[in-house]
Specification:
Length: 68
């Protein structure tokens, strides 16, 4: 169930190169505040996964709504 949530929202992520092509930026627009950067696309995506996991844990611990 949780993995399905993560997979669903990671598939909605978009990324772009920033800082003149030196870094990557990615975000999940449907989840306010879930974004990340990295020197490579792989690092950026790993950071985005970590941000998404942290966002989900915070929402669950504080009994805040989580999109279905």
């Amino acid at each position: 169930m949780i993995q399905d949530f993560i997979d669903t929202f990671l598939s909605q992520a978009w990324d772009e190169m920033i800082d003149g092509g030196k870094r990557f930026y990615a975000e999940i627009k449907a989840l306010r505040g879930v974004w990340a950067t990295g020197r490579t696309l792989e690092e950026c995506r790993a950071n985005l996964l970590s941000a998404l996991e942290g966002w989900l844990i915070f929402r669950l611990r504080n009994q805040l709504p989580v999109p279905q």
